[in-house]
Design goal:
It contains seven helices and 28 strands. It has helices spanning about 1-20, 55-65, 190-195, 335-340, 475-485, 500-505, 540-545; strands at about 75-85, 95-100, 110-115, 135-145, 145-160, 165, 200-205, 205, 215-220, 235-240, 250-255, 275-285, 290-305, 305, 345, 350, 355-365, 380-385, 395-400, 420-430, 435-445, 450, 490-495, 520, 535, 560-570, 570-585, 585-590.
Length: about 600
């Protein structure tokens, strides 16, 4: 009975299967050898320009001619439709990866690899691009191990479904470039982008920058939650500016400090979309395709017409630099900032400094609770000085000791806003953007006229007489001191190593000189008149090894402190028998 039932079941199922097969459409036709394949349906077209972009077939043909690993020399434009999206966008870098084809469905595609959005800006979400969108891509292309694609971070969407925001084939603001980059004639955003378009970028540590320039615009977007760097650690802000405050023709202001070249403070120094600003600082072309400010080397010079100075886009006081850094002619705060503007900072253990100099001003703000370092462990104070005691044009006095180069004592050696001070010691350009004293190597020489000199910015005991360690001669005063005597004057002399020695020689003899054994020094690092320079004969040994320009070209333009004999030799008043020198924060030879 079971077998009979099973037979009927099999017969029924077979009949049902045969019936269902009659309803199945015939298989689709496979192409014959004469049918066109997808690869043969579109011919290469276009010239790769903005007005006549390549189609995908032409872009493939162009890229196939590149060697493996080779990048196109110029930006090209490619038109197609998004066939597939591989990476909606990267939140960290704001770029996207997708494939385009001529019809949006063909298997013949070109890879747009990690390209930016319209206007050469970052993607802000993953829903800005979808399959089927018609795009024009602009940028450099490469043959990456046989994969034809745009070069990472060197391409962007020039057009999306007919909408374009420019971007200019390599980054930057659209519009007509205006301005010369000065305070009186600042760049507009397009002018700033134009100023950096030919600057090179090799890596995060190797890139070209402009000098300090001014850029004017209105804030159109704010990054980092609208106020300052997320978490407030560094006190800087990142935002975009444009000429009219819209998102058209934006320029990226990356990690910019606040008014007066100071840090942003949460809730006190916020900015908002629509604010009119003038930025002062250095610009770069990040990755060769994104014009922007150099992080930490630009600040708000003006915010809706309000200014607090800050000087030079890399820190420092505003105003006219004055003084030569001697006791008789101390730097004003702007002069101190100017004296260090070309000094380099690599790390907390590797930086350049001036020799010991004098800086005069009035205390405008006091850090560390107004007396000395919090906790009193080190007995030093940090405060700001300016020429008039206001917060305009401040210079930072960082961890400075008290009168006589001694430690502060709580309640006995306090300072206050308004005190007139003379600081004596070494200066530096911290992080290449903050002129300040070197911690522990400066002290109060004078407080409201009272002195108790301790000498040497960190020790010593000089009397302060002209030509002493704490009050060295300038070049001009050294020449005057040595010109009226037939014997030598032993003294300290401070000056800047002059490049005129390379052009005209530091003559001590009638038949020229060897630049390895001689220098010229001047009162100014930019002195070009050899008649205002003083020749220095370098004796063999440590002093010559440490100072000569043949082995140490980096000494050119640096301030040097010398101890030697001021004397006349072959008609020239110069310095001989140098036994001790200080340059770049380094002591050379034996201090008398």
């Amino acid at each position: 009975m079971k077998k009979l039932f099973y037979s009927f079941f099999v017969m029924a199922m077979t009949a049902m299967f045969m019936a269902s097969c009659e309803d199945v459409p015939a298989p689709f036709d496979l192409p014959t050898p004469d049918d066109p394949t997808p690869e043969q349906t579109v011919d290469p077209a276009g010239s790769g320009t903005q007005a006549d972009p390549y189609n995908v077939a032409a872009a493939i043909e162009f890229a196939e001619k590149l060697q493996v690993g080779e990048e196109s020399q110029q930006d090209i434009y490619i038109k197609g439709k998004v066939a597939s999206i591989r990476e909606n966008y990267t939140a960290q870098y704001g770029n996207a990866t997708f494939n385009i084809s001529d019809d949006g469905t063909s298997k013949v595609t070109f890879t747009v690899y990690r390209a930016l959005y319209l206007g050469n800006k970052k993607y802000t979400s993953g829903d800005l691009l979808k399959e089927g969108d018609e795009v024009i891509v602009c940028g450099k292309v490469t043959n990456y191990n046989g994969t034809l694609e745009t070069q990472q971070n060197k391409a962007f969407l020039y057009s999306l479904n007919g909408k374009s925001e420019g971007g200019g084939g390599g980054g930057g603001s659209t519009g007509t470039p205006k301005g010369s980059g000065t305070l009186d004639d600042p760049y507009n955003p397009a002018g700033a982008a134009n100023a950096v378009k030919n600057l090179t970028w090799t890596s995060n540590d190797v890139y070209d920058t402009t000098g300090d320039v001014y850029v004017k615009g209105k804030i159109s977007r704010i990054a980092d939650k609208g106020t300052f760097t997320e978490g407030g650690t560094y006190g800087n802000a990142s935002f975009y500016i444009s000429e009219d405050g819209t998102e058209n023709g934006e320029f990226y202001c990356f990690r910019v400090l606040y008014l007066g070249n100071k840090k942003f403070e949460a809730g006190k120094t916020d900015i908002k979309v629509g604010d009119e600003v003038i930025i002062c600082g250095q610009l770069m072309n990040y990755r060769g395709n994104t014009p922007e400010t150099v992080a930490g080397k630009a600040y708000l010079y003006s915010l809706n017409g309000n200014t607090e100075g800050g000087g030079g886009g890399g820190g420092g006081s505003t105003g006219d630099p004055k003084g030569s850094g001697t006791l008789n002619d101390p730097y004003n705060p702007a002069g101190a900032a100017n004296a260090v503007k070309n000094l380099t900072w690599t790390s907390n253990d590797n930086y350049e400094t001036t020799g010991d100099v004098y800086v005069k001003g009035k205390i405008s703000r006091i850090a560390d609770k107004g007396t000395f370092t919090e906790g009193g462990t080190y007995g030093n104070a940090s405060f700001y000085i300016s020429e008039d005691g206001t917060q305009n044009g401040e210079f930072y006095c960082f961890r400075v000791l008290y009168l006589g180069n001694k430690k502060y004592e709580a309640g006995q050696t306090d300072i206050k806003v308004g005190d007139e001070v003379i600081i004596y010691g070494q200066l530096m350009n911290y992080r290449n953007n903050t002129p300040e004293t070197v911690a522990g190597k400066a002290h109060l020489y004078s407080l409201n006229g009272k002195t108790e000199d301790g000498g040497g910015g960190g020790g010593g005991g000089d009397t302060g007489d002209a030509g002493s360690y704490s009050n060295p001669y300038t070049v001009s005063s050294a020449v005057a001191a040595g010109s009226g005597t037939s014997v030598y004057v032993k003294a300290y002399i401070v000056g800047y190593v002059s490049g005129q020695v390379l052009a005209e020689g530091a003559h001590f003899t009638a038949d020229g000189c060897d630049v390895k054994t001689n220098l010229l020094i001047a009162d100014s690092p930019s002195e070009t008149n050899v008649n205002n320079c003083m020749p220095v004969q370098l004796p063999s040994g440590a002093v010559r090894t440490g100072l000569n320009l043949q082995d140490n070209p980096g000494n050119l333009g640096k301030q040097v402190l010398l101890n030697g004999n001021i004397e006349k030799y072959f008609g020239a008043t110069g310095v001989k028998t140098v036994k001790y020198a200080e340059i770049n924060g380094t002591s050379i030879g034996t201090k008398p």
